[in-house]
Specification:
The protein is mainly α. The chain is built from 17 helices and no strands.
């Protein structure tokens, strides 16, 4: 094997997300598309040109196997698990998670049985619709899902999530405020400024300062701790039967990552989430490059699209029913649903759209808990659906 070609391939995959992130900052149209979708597109193009060297499969396997285990602890280190607050917040957390689980279970009975790897798909949808991309990637690895299935899920998820968000912003919020309890108070300029500041954080360069001496020292400590957690997790998983290795490995990574977040020195370190997210970006382009375009059957995947539509809008309907029964505030119900379906980065935008600062912190907190629980729930769901 030509070592130089192998190194160039690895470096190329690792550096392409940086270029995409820079372009997204520079061009607003690319920012609207988002780095994940762009990276999937680039990966598919790279993997289907037929011009890549023979070392490519080895580079793909190395990176796809390494990125998710490194990302999971890093993205959990900075999480704050704090569920103080009103009954409405706690009920929104529980009923939202239950709604997702019930909708996915029912959707499996209607659509999932006709989908290849249907039980695994149900597990992945549970992970992504209680957590986010990190959970989807982790469950893909944990459950051994094919690259083509993973790409289809991501492609349809982007479409369905857009339709879901558009519905809420156009008519959903107004309708739910009419049929559910609503306690929105006066929205002051101070409140608006607070939400605007939170939204502006999403536009900042999260990697600014990383390549200073202080930033590199912090990154070194984070990566050192991450490698230690990966080593411990692998060691524990190796003691158990080989068939259970990946499942135990991922769950151990999640558990140790959550545990480390309670250590103040670890929790307060900058860049942990963003370094972890960068590893996920690398994973996205690598996995997409492993997909055979000829195997991506979008027309034949109509059952998968129906499954996602049912999971997303079915869970929203169930949340409305639960909110009516338990008298959950309408905006709290909406923000918890958005947190689960679209992930926490959409919380500030939705809080601003609703002109309700009171849902900002609860929404972000629910999202953090969803990230932490997504891998466990996704694995459990895949096992339960496999019995049906």
């Amino acid at each position: 094997m030509n070592i130089l070609n192998w190194i160039i391939l690895i470096a190329g995959f690792c550096l392409m997300p940086a270029g995409v992130l820079w372009l997204c900052k520079k061009f607003s149209v690319l920012k609207k598309i988002g780095p994940v979708l762009i990276l999937y597109g680039l990966g598919i193009i790279i993997g289907n040109t037929g011009l890549m060297p023979e070392q490519m499969p080895a580079a793909q396997e190395l990176l796809s196997n390494a990125m998710v285990p490194l990302a999971i602890p890093l993205m959990l280190f900075g999480c704050t698990f704090n569920m103080k607050g009103a009954r409405s917040q706690i009920l929104a957390l529980v009923t939202g998670m239950a709604s997702v689980a019930i909708a996915i279970a029912l959707g499996y009975l209607i659509f999932g049985r006709d989908i290849p790897e249907g039980a695994k798909v149900g597990g992945m949808l549970t992970g992504v619709y209680t957590g986010g991309t990190i959970n989807l990637a982790a469950l893909k690895t944990m459950l051994g899902v094919k690259e083509e299935t993973y790409i289809l899920i991501n492609s349809y998820d982007i479409l369905v999530s857009f339709l879901y968000l558009s519905f809420l912003l156009t008519v959903g919020i107004r309708v739910f405020r009419k049929i559910l309890p609503n306690t929105v108070g006066q929205f002051t300029e101070k409140d608006e400024a607070a939400i605007k500041a939170e939204m502006e954080k999403e536009n900042e360069n999260p990697y600014e300062g990383l390549f200073t001496s202080k930033g590199l020292a912090t990154a070194g400590k984070l990566l050192g701790l991450t490698v230690l957690i990966v080593g411990i997790s692998a060691g524990v998983a190796l003691v158990l039967p080989e068939s259970a290795f990946m499942t135990i490995f991922i769950l151990m990574l999640t558990t140790l990552g959550i545990g480390s977040s309670f250590i103040r020195k670890v929790h307060d370190m900058k860049y942990s989430y963003d370094i972890g997210m960068y590893f996920i970006y690398i994973f996205c382009i690598v996995v997409a490059s492993m997909a055979d375009l000829g195997e991506l059957d979008f027309v034949g995947g109509i059952d998968l699209l129906g499954y996602l539509l049912f999971a997303v809008f079915g869970s929203l309907l169930l949340q409305v029913v639960f909110a009516k029964i338990f008298k959950i505030d309408s905006d709290m119900m909406v923000i918890s649903s958005v947190t689960y379906i679209n992930s926490p980065p959409f919380v500030p935008m939705m809080a601003a759209a609703m002109k309700n600062k009171d849902v900002l912190i609860p929404g972000l907190t629910i999202g953090v808990i969803g990230y932490a629980a997504g891998n466990y729930l996704g694995f459990l769901m895949s096992q339960l659906l496999g019995l049906l």
